[in-house]
Amino acid sequence: GDSVTQMEGPVTLSEEAFLTINCTYTATGYPSLFWYVQYPGEGLQLLLKATKADDKGSNKGFEATYRKETTSFHLEKGSVQVSDSAVYFCALSAYSGAGSYQLTFGKGTKLSVIP
Amino acid sequence: ETGVTQTPRHLVMGMTNKKSLKCEQHLGHNAMYWYKQSAKKPLELMFVYNFKEQTENNSVPSRFSPECPNSSHLFLHLHTLQPEDSALYLCASSQAPGRGHSTDTQYFGPGTRLTVL
């Protein structure tokens, strides 16, 4: 079945540091790939997505490129802020065959940014 | 109000209680989902509704009973829960395939934090 593996956390960075959170996937077909973010006490928010190979998703300074050859979708940000402290989830979406798409999530990576 | 809303945001219940969680989406979507988020475990998909019809039930115990009266509303009825059912319950919605829109992006509500005593 489909699966998503992302780097274990927690990750602690100083403000303005460079961020990389690794994500790799296994899937049949051609899934869409997502990064969601969960701030403390809240639900998941869509951060960015990419729907086909070599697409780059970007939002709020975060970027991730869909790499089919390495089955990866690593999240990067050039300069993190304290407000980026959250849990980040990598996910893939595949058609379930029952009229809807299903998301498969990684376990999440907790990021803490210190001033 | 926009997006996906969930009520209540917090719920404490005893094992013999009956309660319901409510989800409402204001995005014009026609697929809705219930997820369970427990500490140190990946998000678990519980139920999927597509055009008000349940299309997925991922081996969820019968003490959880979903209801989808229309495309905008989704309920999760809770009965005789166990302490291990304590978790954050998330609702999401998306546009079902076939309508020519971005169909695979799910939008989540803020969740209901459930504590079973």
Q: What key attributes describe this structure?
A:
heterodimer, A: 115 residues, mainly beta, six-stranded mixed beta sheet, four-stranded antiparallel beta sheet, 12 strands, B: 117 residues, seven-stranded mixed beta sheet, 0% helix
Word description of this protein:
The complex is a heterodimer of chains A (115) and B (117). Chain A is mainly β. Chain A has strands at 3-6, 11-14, 19-21, 23-26, 32-38, 44-50, 56-59, 62-65, 75-77, 86-95, 101-105, 109-114. The termini of chain A are far apart. In chain A, the strands form three sheets. In chain A, strands 2, 5, 6, 10, 11 and 12 form a six-stranded mixed sheet that branches. Chain A has a four-stranded antiparallel sheet with strand order 3-9-8-7, with no helix packed on it. Chain A is built from no helices and twelve strands. Chain B has 117 residues and is mainly β. In chain B, 0% of the residues lie in helices and 55% in strands. Chain B contains no helices and eleven strands. Chain B has strands at residues 4-7, 10-13, 18-25, 31-37, 44-50, 53-57, 64-70, 73-79, 87-94, 107-108, 112-116. Chain B is globular and about 40 Å long. Chain B starts with a strand and ends with a strand. The mean pLDDT of chain B is 88. The chains are: A mainly beta (115), B mainly beta (117).
Q: Short summary of the structure?
A:
Chain A is mainly beta. In chain A, 0% of the residues lie in helices and 53% in strands. Chain A is built from no helices and twelve strands.
What's the SSE blueprint?
The complex is a heterodimer of chains A (115) and B (117).
Chain A: E1 3-6, E2 11-14, E3 19-21, E4 23-26, E5 32-38, E6 44-50, E7 56-59, E8 62-65, E9 75-77, E10 86-95, E11 101-105, E12 109-114
Parallel strand pairs in A: 2-12
Antiparallel strand pairs in A: 1-4, 3-9, 5-6, 5-10, 7-8, 8-9, 10-11, 10-12
Chain B: E1 4-7, E2 10-13, E3 18-25, E4 31-37, E5 44-50, E6 53-57, E7 64-70, E8 73-79, E9 87-94, E10 107-108, E11 112-116
Parallel strand pairs in B: 2-11
Antiparallel strand pairs in B: 1-3, 3-8, 4-5, 4-9, 5-6, 7-8, 9-10, 9-11
